């Protein structure tokens, strides 16, 4: 095992203490950080995971409880190593309701003690703009459309399409991989017909190697700006570790949220693997 240098230990403490409290938005939890790197040509990457979040609130429906995510999916494919097509979403969200409050959608939301629905899925396209060897950092641009799969009758969805675009940057420095995302989100307003919320997207990630096949992970991401009913300010950060074992990538992350409308915490376990789907992409 390669032990952390003094600088790497400082960066780990800095990420944990100072970079966690940021502002986010929307009813889909939690927001993620995206690396600008493109998977190799002719290769696909598949990830599946589970998540558990305690005291998760849904302000639009007034529901609060423990949320379980089963089948957290991410799939990406690259034909030429410069463009990557992706989709992600959750097969099943299960909320064990602990409390209910009067809210915009409380009259039509599920009255059951347990409510469940499919999660919203997002379709992404990521383009590499320039490599780190030709510029000060690797740079990509990413576009995505979030589909309203989760219904507002379940209390877990907002029935709105959302659009995202962001620039992604990555820099290796002092043996650490640093990732920054910044861009624009256009979010539908579930309370006002033909209204929208224009938001600023930002994210940060720090990945510190602790061995040839493992690393520490510090991530935070968000959206901030214009908000309203059903589009609330949130905050979350992820801290954990990732390792390669038995040909698979294993990632375990603790998740903590910070906001007046959301003080949930929980954990995620994600397993991923890469595989070739084109024998000769060129």
Textual characterization of the structure:
This protein is mainly β and 282 residues long. It is built from 1 helix and 15 strands; from the N terminus they run αβββββββββββββββ. It has a 12-stranded antiparallel beta barrel with strand order 2-3-4-6-7-8-9-10-11-13-14-15. Strands 1-12 form a two-stranded antiparallel ribbon. A hairpin with a 2-residue loop joins strand 13 (236-245) and strand 14 (248-257). The longest helix is centred in the first third of the chain and has 13 residues, at 6-18. The radius of gyration is 19 Å and the shape is globular. It starts with 5 loop residues before the first helix and ends in a 6-residue tail after the last strand.
Shape descriptor: globular
Give the CATH class: Mainly Beta
The sequence of SSEs as H and E is HEEEEEEEEEEEEEEE
Q: Helix tally? A: 1
- As a percent range, the share of strand residues is over 45%
Distance between the termini: 38 Å
User: Biggest sheet: strands, sense, closure?
Assistant: 12 strands, antiparallel, barrel
Q: Which consecutive residue ranges, at least 5 long each, have pLDDT under 50?
A: 12-27
- Write out the strand line-up for the largest beta sheet, numbering strands in chain order: 2-3-4-6-7-8-9-10-11-13-14-15
Count of all domains: 1
> CATH superfamily membership, which one?
monomeric porin ompg
Which percent range fits the helix content? under 10%
> What is the CATH architecture assignment?
Beta Barrel
Give a count of the beta strands, DSSP E runs of length 2 or more: 15
Give the helix/strand class.
mainly beta
Q: What name does the CATH topology carry? A: Porin
CA radius of gyration: 19 Å
Mean pLDDT: 86
């Amino acid at each position: 095992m390669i032990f952390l240098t003094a600088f790497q230990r400082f960066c780990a403490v800095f990420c944990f203490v100072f970079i966690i409290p940021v502002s986010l938005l929307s009813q889909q939890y939690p927001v993620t950080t995206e690396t600008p790197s493109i998977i190799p040509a002719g290769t696909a990457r598949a990830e599946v995971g589970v998540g558990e979040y305690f005291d998760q609130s849904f302000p639009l429906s007034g529901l609060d409880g423990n949320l379980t995510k089963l089948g957290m999916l991410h799939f990406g494919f690259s034909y030429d190593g410069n463009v990557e097509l992706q989709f992600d979403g959750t097969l099943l969200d299960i909320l064990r309701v602990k409390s209910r409050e009067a809210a915009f959608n409380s009259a039509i939301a599920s009255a059951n003690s347990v409510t469940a629905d499919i999660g919203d899925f997002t379709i992404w396209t990521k383009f590499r703009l320039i490599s780190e060897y030709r510029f000060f950092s690797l740079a990509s641009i990413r576009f995505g459309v979030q589909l309203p799969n989760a219904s507002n009758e379940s209390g877990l969805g907002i029935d709105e399409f959302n659009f995202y675009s962001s620039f992604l940057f990555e820099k290796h420095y002092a043996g650490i991989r640093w990732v920054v995302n910044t861009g624009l989100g256009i979010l539908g307003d579930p309370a006002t017909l033909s209204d929208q919320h224009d938001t600023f997207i930002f994210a940060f990630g720090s990945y510190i190697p602790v061995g040839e096949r493992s690393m520490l992970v510090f991530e935070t991401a968000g959206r901030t700006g214009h908000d309203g009913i059903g589009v609330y300010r949130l905050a979350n950060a992820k801290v954990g570790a990732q390792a390669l074992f038995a040909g698979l990538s294993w990632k375990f992350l603790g998740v903590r949220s910070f906001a007046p409308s959301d003080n949930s915490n929980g954990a995620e376990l994600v397993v991923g693997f890469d595989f070739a789907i084109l024998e000769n992409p060129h």
